[in-house]
Every structure is written in C-alpha cells, then in structure tokens.
Amino acid sequence: MAVRWMASGGGAGAMVLGGMALIGLIDNFVALIAPTAGLWQFQAVRAGMALVVLVPLMAWRRVWPVAPGAVALRSVLATGGMLLYFGCLGTLPVALVAAGLFTAPIWLVLIDWGLRGARPGAGRALAVGLGFAGVVVMLDPFGSGGGWATGLAVLAGLLYGAGNLVTRLRCSQESPLSLLFGYYLLLGAVGALGCLALALWGPEVPEGAAGWALRAWGRAGATFTAVSLAQALGSLLAVGLLIRAYQLGEPARMAVMENSLLIFAALWGWWLWGDTLNPRELGGMGLILVGAVLAR
User: Fold this and answer.
1) 218-267 pLDDT, tens digit each
2) Distances from the Cα of 41 to the Cα of 28, 192, 215, 250, angstroms
C-alpha cells in the first residue's frame, strides 16, 4: 500500500517536507564558514564530494540522461539559483534568504501560464498568493529587510522556479541520479572557474562574511571540510527527494509546500544558535504555512 501511494504521487508532499527539513538544518551551518572561506571554493568542494558518491552509483545502475538537453537546461537554472542563494547566505539569515528563494511558486505559476496557458484554479491561486504575501512580509522590501542581497535572493527564486518547471515538463522520465549528476557537475565546474577568475582578478577582499563571494581558493580547515561534507551528503539526499517529488507531483503544489523551509530554517536556527524571529517575520511565516496547507 505504501509503495503504491509513493509511486502514484501521494508521497510527493512528504518528500518535499523531508527535503526541506534536512536543507534547513545543513544550510544553517554555512554561517560557520562564511567569515573565512569562499563561496566558489565551497561549491567546487561540495560538488566534488557529491560526485564521488554519484558517479559509482550511476555506473552501477547504468544510468544515463534520456534527454541530455533538458537535463543541461535544468542544471543551468538550478546552478544559477543555488549560487545566488548560497551567495546571500554569507551575509543574511537562512530564513530571510529562503524567503527570497521561495518567491519560486509565483514565478512558476506565471511561467507556466505564460508558456503553456496553464491557468491556476482559484484554490491554487489563493494558496500561491498567500505564500507570496508571506514572503513579502518576511522580506520587508521597504524596511530594514530590503537591499540588493534580498533582490538577488528573489532572482534565485525565479531561476529555481523555472528549473522546477523544467524538471516536471521535460525531465519526468529521468532518473534522479542523472539530474543530480548534471547539477553537481555544472556546479563544481562553475565553482572551480569562479576560483580561477578571482585568483586572476585579485580583488580586494573585505574581512569576515562580507568577503564570502570574493575569496578565491584558500586553505581548507576542519570546519570547512565538515560543513562541505555535510552539505554534499545532505543535499544529495534532500535534492534527490525534491527531484522525485517534482516528477510525481504537480509543480505549483510542490513549490508552495517548499515554503516549509522557512519554518524548518527558523526552528533549526533557534535550536542551534538561539536565533529568534520578530512578530512581522512570524506573521509572514503564518501566511506561508496557510498557503502550503491550502496547496494540498
């Protein structure tokens, strides 16, 4: 019974929630390395670690992309979105960056409507609208929460939403392993190229977390290695769950349910670091949670 439920798509929502809980945990640890490490080295290292696991699995399962062009397009969109997301994590709290990333549901619905004429029903439109309103309340674009970094987080949401739509429409027959391989291969290549470009450019790097996106390759300490390994293994599992969820479930519904990351990130941040949320941020999370429930 459980197997049939998962195969029919009934477990897609559970996959999303599990993936979000795990991502909310491991992304909180990026703050430990941002003051001394670099974004590009971090992406190259964690992607390399993930590929060490993926390549043998693909060889064992004899997996190869069914539609390499679609896999490549999804990889470009996902890589762009995640680079912006992790770039913002160096200077902003996880919950705030995730709020920008999870403008994805509104972008996904708009893109799907524009490209395919897929109009959302009234209930789905309300769910997306509530979720988006909650994101805006959390971001506070006209108050202290605004700024260029939150704008980049919203752009990450656009790329992420587009990548999820491609997953559903063009990659539904792909193995999650092939999609993960394409993503991490491109992410690792871009990370390595970013380190090379920064080494050749030699920009002035600010102290602390402000230099996160401008540092080239540096000496990796124990904390950097541990966080990178946790990211590699944790994101493999979490992204694999999300990929399968988008293959089985309806994209707009899955995207709205992903907003649960805000809840998980805040809970992990409170438990790990003692971070608390103000009433405005709690109100935004409430709207997001209601939207996620209505999306079912």
Assistant:
1) 888 999 999 999 999 999 899 888 888 878 887 767 767 777 887 888 88
2) 18, 7, 8, 35
Contacts of 271 (CB under 8 A, 6+ apart): none
Q: How far apart are CA 126 and CA 131, in angstroms?
A: 8
Q: Are 141 and 295 in contact (CB under 8 A)?
A: no
Label residue 219 exposed, middle or buried (CB < 10 Å: 0-12, 13-18, 19+). exposed
40 Rama class: left (phi>0) / alpha (psi -120 to 50) / beta? alpha
From residue 2, alpha-carbon distances to 6, 72, 118, 246 in Å are: 6, 33, 31, 19
What are φ and ψ of residue 274, in 5° steps? 75, 15
pLDDT in tens, 195-209: 999 999 989 999 999
CA 52 – CA 194 distance, rounded (Å): 21
Q: Considering the entire predicted model, what is its pTM?
A: 0.84
Residues in the chain: 296
> From CA 200, how far away is CA 192, in angstroms rounded?
13
